[in-house]
Design brief:
Layout lengths: L2 E9 L2 E10 L14 H4 L2 E6 L13 E2 L11 E2 L7 E4 L2 E6 L4 E3 L2 E3 L2 E2 L1 E3 L9 E8 L6 E9 L2 H4 L6 E6 L7 E7 L11 E6 L8 E7 L3 E6 L2 E7 L14 E9 L1 H4 L11 E12 L5
Parallel strand pairs: 5-10
Antiparallel strand pairs: 1-2, 1-16, 3-21, 4-11, 6-7, 7-21, 8-9, 11-20, 12-17, 12-21, 13-14, 13-20, 14-15, 15-16, 17-18, 18-19
GO molecular function: hydrolase activity, hydrolyzing O-glycosyl compounds
Protein name: Beta-glucanase (GH16 family)
Pfam families: Glyco_hydro_16
Length: about 290
Protein backbone atom coordinates (compact mmCIF):
# COMPACT_ATOMS: atom_id res chain seq x y z
CA UNK A 1 0.00 0.00 0.00
CA UNK A 2 1.22 3.48 -0.83
CA UNK A 3 0.96 5.81 2.15
CA UNK A 4 0.15 9.50 1.83
CA UNK A 5 1.72 11.65 4.53
CA UNK A 6 1.08 15.35 5.01
CA UNK A 7 3.50 16.83 7.47
CA UNK A 8 2.29 19.73 9.60
CA UNK A 9 4.84 20.68 12.20
CA UNK A 10 4.52 23.21 14.98
CA UNK A 11 7.60 23.99 17.04
CA UNK A 12 6.73 26.13 20.07
CA UNK A 13 5.50 29.40 18.43
CA UNK A 14 6.77 28.61 14.92
CA UNK A 15 5.10 26.51 12.25
CA UNK A 16 5.62 25.35 8.71
CA UNK A 17 3.90 23.10 6.20
CA UNK A 18 5.42 20.61 3.80
CA UNK A 19 3.22 19.88 0.80
CA UNK A 20 1.48 16.49 0.46
CA UNK A 21 3.60 13.80 -1.12
CA UNK A 22 3.48 10.10 -1.79
CA UNK A 23 5.76 7.86 0.21
CA UNK A 24 7.37 5.47 -2.30
CA UNK A 25 6.54 1.83 -1.70
CA UNK A 26 10.26 1.10 -1.44
CA UNK A 27 10.40 3.26 1.70
CA UNK A 28 7.55 1.60 3.57
CA UNK A 29 8.79 -0.24 6.66
CA UNK A 30 8.01 -3.94 6.71
CA UNK A 31 8.04 -6.07 9.83
CA UNK A 32 11.67 -7.08 9.69
CA UNK A 33 13.35 -4.07 8.12
CA UNK A 34 15.19 -1.08 9.53
CA UNK A 35 15.40 2.29 7.78
CA UNK A 36 19.17 2.44 8.08
CA UNK A 37 21.97 0.07 7.28
CA UNK A 38 22.86 -0.83 10.85
CA UNK A 39 26.40 -1.77 9.92
CA UNK A 40 26.98 1.55 8.15
CA UNK A 41 25.45 3.72 10.85
CA UNK A 42 26.81 1.82 13.83
CA UNK A 43 23.41 0.96 15.35
CA UNK A 44 23.34 -2.27 17.33
CA UNK A 45 20.22 -3.98 18.64
CA UNK A 46 20.49 -3.91 22.45
CA UNK A 47 16.94 -4.70 23.61
CA UNK A 48 13.81 -5.97 21.91
CA UNK A 49 10.55 -7.83 22.26
CA UNK A 50 9.31 -9.50 19.08
CA UNK A 51 6.23 -10.93 20.84
CA UNK A 52 6.97 -14.35 19.37
CA UNK A 53 5.22 -16.13 22.23
CA UNK A 54 1.70 -16.47 23.62
CA UNK A 55 0.19 -15.31 26.90
CA UNK A 56 1.09 -12.48 29.24
CA UNK A 57 3.75 -9.92 28.24
CA UNK A 58 7.27 -11.08 29.11
CA UNK A 59 7.72 -10.34 32.82
CA UNK A 60 11.49 -10.03 32.39
CA UNK A 61 10.89 -7.02 30.14
CA UNK A 62 7.63 -5.40 31.23
CA UNK A 63 5.99 -4.15 34.39
CA UNK A 64 2.43 -2.86 34.75
CA UNK A 65 1.16 0.46 35.98
CA UNK A 66 -2.00 0.09 38.03
CA UNK A 67 -4.88 2.33 39.03
CA UNK A 68 -6.29 5.69 37.98
CA UNK A 69 -3.13 7.61 37.22
CA UNK A 70 -3.12 10.73 35.04
CA UNK A 71 -4.95 13.52 33.27
CA UNK A 72 -8.43 12.76 34.67
CA UNK A 73 -8.64 9.71 32.40
CA UNK A 74 -11.50 7.25 32.80
CA UNK A 75 -9.66 3.93 32.55
CA UNK A 76 -8.38 1.85 35.44
CA UNK A 77 -5.02 0.32 34.51
CA UNK A 78 -4.89 -3.34 35.48
CA UNK A 79 -1.93 -5.55 36.35
CA UNK A 80 -1.52 -9.00 34.84
CA UNK A 81 -5.05 -9.11 33.42
CA UNK A 82 -5.10 -10.91 30.07
CA UNK A 83 -8.23 -9.10 28.93
CA UNK A 84 -6.21 -5.87 28.89
CA UNK A 85 -2.71 -7.00 27.85
CA UNK A 86 -1.80 -10.23 26.09
CA UNK A 87 0.36 -11.64 23.33
CA UNK A 88 -1.27 -13.68 20.58
CA UNK A 89 -0.33 -14.53 16.99
CA UNK A 90 2.97 -12.66 17.32
CA UNK A 91 1.30 -9.40 18.38
CA UNK A 92 1.03 -7.59 21.71
CA UNK A 93 -2.57 -6.50 22.24
CA UNK A 94 -3.32 -3.66 24.65
CA UNK A 95 -7.09 -3.48 25.02
CA UNK A 96 -9.36 -0.93 26.66
CA UNK A 97 -12.70 -2.41 27.73
CA UNK A 98 -15.95 -1.20 29.28
CA UNK A 99 -16.40 -4.45 31.18
CA UNK A 100 -17.20 -3.09 34.66
CA UNK A 101 -14.68 -5.50 36.16
CA UNK A 102 -14.47 -6.12 39.90
CA UNK A 103 -10.83 -5.35 40.75
CA UNK A 104 -9.39 -4.80 44.22
CA UNK A 105 -12.84 -4.75 45.76
CA UNK A 106 -14.39 -2.15 43.48
CA UNK A 107 -16.18 -2.02 40.13
CA UNK A 108 -13.94 -0.51 37.44
CA UNK A 109 -16.25 0.61 34.60
CA UNK A 110 -13.43 0.99 32.05
CA UNK A 111 -10.20 -1.02 32.16
CA UNK A 112 -7.01 -0.84 30.12
CA UNK A 113 -3.29 -1.57 30.42
CA UNK A 114 -0.12 0.48 30.63
CA UNK A 115 3.08 -1.51 30.15
CA UNK A 116 6.38 0.01 31.26
CA UNK A 117 10.02 -1.05 31.14
CA UNK A 118 10.73 0.79 34.39
CA UNK A 119 12.67 -1.44 36.74
CA UNK A 120 13.55 -3.75 33.83
CA UNK A 121 15.30 -1.55 31.27
CA UNK A 122 15.98 2.10 30.53
CA UNK A 123 18.28 3.83 28.09
CA UNK A 124 20.29 6.98 27.53
CA UNK A 125 20.37 7.75 23.79
CA UNK A 126 19.58 5.36 20.98
CA UNK A 127 16.95 4.56 18.40
CA UNK A 128 13.69 3.40 19.95
CA UNK A 129 11.12 2.05 17.51
CA UNK A 130 7.70 0.46 17.87
CA UNK A 131 5.69 -1.02 15.01
CA UNK A 132 2.04 -0.53 15.87
CA UNK A 133 -1.53 -0.24 14.64
CA UNK A 134 -3.72 2.15 16.61
CA UNK A 135 -7.27 1.97 17.98
CA UNK A 136 -10.06 4.02 16.47
CA UNK A 137 -12.90 5.92 18.05
CA UNK A 138 -13.66 9.16 19.85
CA UNK A 139 -12.25 9.01 23.35
CA UNK A 140 -9.27 6.75 22.65
CA UNK A 141 -5.80 8.08 23.48
CA UNK A 142 -3.03 5.56 22.71
CA UNK A 143 0.56 6.53 23.41
CA UNK A 144 4.12 5.31 23.00
CA UNK A 145 6.31 7.45 25.24
CA UNK A 146 9.22 7.75 27.64
CA UNK A 147 9.84 9.31 31.04
CA UNK A 148 13.05 10.00 32.94
CA UNK A 149 13.97 7.35 35.50
CA UNK A 150 14.30 10.09 38.12
CA UNK A 151 10.63 11.12 38.02
CA UNK A 152 10.08 10.13 41.66
CA UNK A 153 12.99 12.34 42.71
CA UNK A 154 12.53 15.45 40.57
CA UNK A 155 8.90 15.16 39.44
CA UNK A 156 7.24 15.90 36.11
CA UNK A 157 8.02 17.68 33.82
CA UNK A 158 11.53 18.18 35.22
CA UNK A 159 12.29 14.49 34.61
CA UNK A 160 11.67 14.93 30.87
CA UNK A 161 9.07 13.28 28.67
CA UNK A 162 9.47 12.05 25.08
CA UNK A 163 6.17 11.34 23.32
CA UNK A 164 7.18 9.07 20.46
CA UNK A 165 3.56 8.73 19.36
CA UNK A 166 0.23 10.05 20.59
CA UNK A 167 -3.11 9.85 18.80
CA UNK A 168 -6.52 11.09 19.93
CA UNK A 169 -9.56 9.43 18.43
CA UNK A 170 -11.54 12.63 17.90
CA UNK A 171 -8.84 13.78 15.45
CA UNK A 172 -8.16 10.57 13.51
CA UNK A 173 -5.07 10.07 11.41
CA UNK A 174 -2.97 12.77 13.05
CA UNK A 175 0.13 11.50 14.87
CA UNK A 176 1.67 13.78 17.48
CA UNK A 177 5.30 13.76 18.61
CA UNK A 178 6.25 15.96 21.55
CA UNK A 179 8.85 16.92 24.13
CA UNK A 180 8.08 18.08 27.67
CA UNK A 181 10.72 19.45 30.04
CA UNK A 182 10.92 21.89 32.93
CA UNK A 183 11.14 24.76 30.44
CA UNK A 184 8.93 23.34 27.68
CA UNK A 185 5.66 21.72 28.75
CA UNK A 186 1.93 21.76 28.10
CA UNK A 187 0.83 23.53 31.32
CA UNK A 188 2.88 26.52 30.09
CA UNK A 189 1.87 25.90 26.45
CA UNK A 190 5.56 25.81 25.55
CA UNK A 191 5.95 22.12 24.67
CA UNK A 192 7.87 21.24 21.52
CA UNK A 193 5.47 19.35 19.30
CA UNK A 194 4.69 18.38 15.72
CA UNK A 195 1.93 16.60 13.81
CA UNK A 196 2.17 14.24 10.85
CA UNK A 197 -0.88 12.96 8.97
CA UNK A 198 -1.01 9.16 8.72
CA UNK A 199 -4.57 8.51 7.49
CA UNK A 200 -4.35 4.72 7.74
CA UNK A 201 -2.76 4.54 11.20
CA UNK A 202 -5.83 2.71 12.53
CA UNK A 203 -5.88 0.18 9.69
CA UNK A 204 -2.20 -0.51 9.03
CA UNK A 205 1.01 -0.96 10.99
CA UNK A 206 3.55 1.86 11.00
CA UNK A 207 6.92 2.28 12.69
CA UNK A 208 6.98 5.07 15.28
CA UNK A 209 10.53 5.93 16.30
CA UNK A 210 12.96 8.40 17.75
CA UNK A 211 16.70 8.73 17.24
CA UNK A 212 18.16 10.30 20.38
CA UNK A 213 21.73 11.59 20.67
CA UNK A 214 23.45 14.06 23.02
CA UNK A 215 22.70 16.80 20.47
CA UNK A 216 19.11 16.19 19.35
CA UNK A 217 16.06 13.94 19.24
CA UNK A 218 14.59 13.15 15.80
CA UNK A 219 11.01 11.84 15.49
CA UNK A 220 9.95 9.48 12.68
CA UNK A 221 6.96 7.73 11.24
CA UNK A 222 8.33 4.99 9.02
CA UNK A 223 11.23 6.73 7.23
CA UNK A 224 9.80 10.24 7.47
CA UNK A 225 11.42 12.57 10.00
CA UNK A 226 8.86 15.17 11.04
CA UNK A 227 10.30 16.76 14.19
CA UNK A 228 13.78 17.53 15.53
CA UNK A 229 14.32 18.76 19.08
CA UNK A 230 17.80 20.26 19.40
CA UNK A 231 19.88 20.45 22.57
CA UNK A 232 20.37 24.18 23.15
CA UNK A 233 23.13 23.50 25.70
CA UNK A 234 21.47 25.75 28.27
CA UNK A 235 20.28 24.11 31.49
CA UNK A 236 18.67 20.91 32.73
CA UNK A 237 15.30 22.65 32.38
CA UNK A 238 15.66 22.75 28.60
CA UNK A 239 17.45 19.41 28.09
CA UNK A 240 17.04 16.72 30.79
CA UNK A 241 17.90 13.99 28.31
CA UNK A 242 21.45 12.98 29.24
CA UNK A 243 20.14 10.31 31.61
CA UNK A 244 18.10 7.10 31.38
CA UNK A 245 14.46 7.05 30.33
CA UNK A 246 12.03 4.14 30.37
CA UNK A 247 9.36 3.21 27.81
CA UNK A 248 5.57 3.21 28.26
CA UNK A 249 2.89 1.64 26.01
CA UNK A 250 -0.73 2.38 26.90
CA UNK A 251 -4.27 3.19 25.83
CA UNK A 252 -6.00 5.89 27.84
CA UNK A 253 -9.72 6.63 27.55
CA UNK A 254 -11.01 10.18 27.87
CA UNK A 255 -9.02 12.58 30.00
CA UNK A 256 -7.93 16.18 29.57
CA UNK A 257 -7.00 15.70 25.92
CA UNK A 258 -8.48 12.41 24.74
CA UNK A 259 -11.87 13.25 26.22
CA UNK A 260 -12.24 16.79 24.89
CA UNK A 261 -15.07 15.66 22.59
CA UNK A 262 -16.49 12.99 24.85
CA UNK A 263 -16.26 9.20 24.63
CA UNK A 264 -18.16 7.21 22.02
CA UNK A 265 -19.64 4.26 23.95
CA UNK A 266 -19.34 2.08 20.85
CA UNK A 267 -15.52 2.15 20.68
CA UNK A 268 -15.03 -0.83 22.98
CA UNK A 269 -13.08 -3.01 22.96
CA UNK A 270 -10.40 -0.64 21.66
CA UNK A 271 -7.09 -2.28 20.76
CA UNK A 272 -3.56 -1.14 20.05
CA UNK A 273 -1.66 -3.91 18.26
CA UNK A 274 2.14 -3.91 18.56
CA UNK A 275 4.28 -6.06 16.29
CA UNK A 276 7.60 -5.37 17.99
CA UNK A 277 9.60 -3.02 20.18
CA UNK A 278 13.31 -2.54 19.38
CA UNK A 279 16.03 -0.43 20.92
CA UNK A 280 19.28 0.24 19.07
CA UNK A 281 22.35 1.99 20.40
CA UNK A 282 25.79 2.87 19.17
CA UNK A 283 28.85 1.72 21.08
CA UNK A 284 29.40 5.23 22.39
CA UNK A 285 25.88 5.20 23.91
CA UNK A 286 26.19 1.97 25.88
Amino acid sequence: MICFLLVLATIWMNSWVISPFTLPASRLIQADTFPHDAADTGWQLVWHDEFDYTGSPDSTKWNYEQGYLRNHEKQYYTSGRMENARVENGILIIEARNDSAMIDGAIRPITSASLITRGKASWTYGRIEVRAKLPRGRGTWPAIWMLGDDIDKVGWPTCGEIDIMEHVGFDPGKIHGSIHTGAYNWPQNTQKTAIIDVPDCMDAFHVYAIEWTPEKIDFYVDTIRYLTFVNEHKTFAEWPFDKPCYLILNIAIGGDWGGQHGIDPHIFPAQMAIDYVRVYQKKSDE
